[in-house]
Specification:
Layout: H1 2-20, H2 29-72, E1 77-81, E2 87-90, H3 92-98, H4 102-105, H5 119-132, E3 136-144, E4 147-163, E5 166-177, H6 179-228, H7 232-264, E6 271-273, H8 275-292, E7 295-301, E8 308-310, H9 312-329, E9 334-343, E10 346-353
Parallel strand pairs: 7-9
Antiparallel strand pairs: 1-2, 1-5, 3-4, 4-5, 6-8, 9-10
Helix pairs in contact: 6-7, 7-9, 8-9
Amino acid sequence: MADQDASELRQRAEQRLQEQLVNMADFSLEDAKRLIHELHIHQIELELQNEELRVTQLALETSRGKYSDLYEFSPVGLLTLDTHERIQDANLTFVTLLGVDREKLIKSHLSDFIDSSTQDTYHFFYQALLSTQQPQQCEIVLISPSRSPLVTRLDGIGLMQEITAGTETTYRIAVSDVTLQKQAETQRVELAAERQRSKVLADFVRDISHDLRTPLALVATGLYLIGKTVDKDKQMEKIEAVNKQLFYLTRVLDQLQQMAVLDSTTELVLQPGSINRQVIEVLNRVKLQADLKPVKLTEHLQVGLPDINLDADKIDQVLTILLDNALQFTEQNGMIKVATYLENASIRVEVSDNGVGI
């Protein structure tokens, strides 16, 4: 086919030459010399142009090599996906990150290497790319047989490119490994929680020390006065006062023990239940104690709270401790209020009183 085209081109050139050829009788020697000179100049021009083309081609190949290196050794993984979410190309960084041969990646679906826990996130990400043609971002977990799961961030955009039959859209995805960043964030949250826990513990120790110091001082004073008092009636009065303080100390120690058990128990028995029902059961149990003091118990329970997974025994213990403390420190004719309400995606329970506190 190429030989036929060349032969046809030569025939057309010869025909053009015949049409433009002047009478040879009028073609002098000077004309021939001038023509040969022009041909030599034209030949040199073609050689110079050819040399420039070779230099330009070499520069383009060098530039292409540089861009190829930048693509292959980019600090982030780079992927090209088609409209069916198949991998068309992947750079060396992504291949190394995933630990899978490039040949196995090409034509595979990216979702084959995504953990089931983040499949929905990836699906919404890719559907957004297809429908909006706008840059999209998400975080997913990549898995492979040879590597531990990796938390990665995907940044994607759709690009139109020319093909033989017209144009098609491909999707360029940048894959950034954020596993260490996520681990650092988790450690930072855990450290903040531990600091808060230490602060709460320090505050608790300070408060409970104050709470124990007063009855201990009263016990010591009472025992001293008993030793100094000869009157039997006054001795019995002091002994009764000491017994009250000892009873109070026993209650505080029992509550401390319950709190220690709650704090050390990490396993929860979660079952669907109503938090309002839990609150009402505890209120009914302490109502007699409140009436005897007397202290007014009020409840403000939000209607229509959904059932949640809860450990009924643990919640019962916590509410009992809170209400016992409220009854202990609320004066006669005081008020204790228990409220429940929905806050963001959580249910909040509050126990408040108008007592003096610790």
